[in-house]
């Protein structure tokens, strides 16, 4: 049986952990209420994260660049959201996780966001960047010199 490992599985795991934190350690700060500012901030982060992911996918697919990790890229996409982040889909995932923690009234779950970013960097991003560097050496060197990995 082959092991299937994709970033959304890690996001789902972290979202489940945030929900467990909210259930075990409710802060009572009212972050989860409709009137709470943090709820609205959380919603805005989720909407921004999903929007960023969709924007990135819309830039990748017409160029034949796969969205799934560990697939061979056909083009180096450097426009759209890729102008300010080399990994806008993963950045969108992190925004969704942060937003969910706020909406769940679980600010104690916010440390999951940098942990999630670290996991993605170690398990996916480094390999993806190596593949891009090998396939598009000059273009990747120029792009990575002016564009940060996350933000």
Q: How large is the count of helical segments?
A: 5
Radius of gyration: 17 Å
- Succession of helices and strands: HHHHH
Shape: elongated
Alpha carbon gap, first and last residue:
37 Å
Q: Please summarize the sheet with the most strands.
A: none
Number of domains: 1
Low-confidence stretches: none
Helix content: 55-70%
Look at the structure and give the mean pLDDT.
91
How many beta-strand elements? 0
Structural class, by secondary structure, is mainly alpha
DSSP strand (E) fraction?
A: under 5%
Organism: Limimaricola pyoseonensis
Main location: membrane
GO molecular function: methyltransferase activity
Subcellular location: Endomembrane system
Defining traits:
151 residues; mainly alpha; 5 helices; 61% helix
Question: If you had to describe this structure to a student in words, what would you say it looks like?
Answer:
With 151 residues, this protein is mainly α. It has one domain. The protein is built from five helices and no strands. Helix 1 packs parallel to helix 3 and helix 3 packs antiparallel against helix 4.
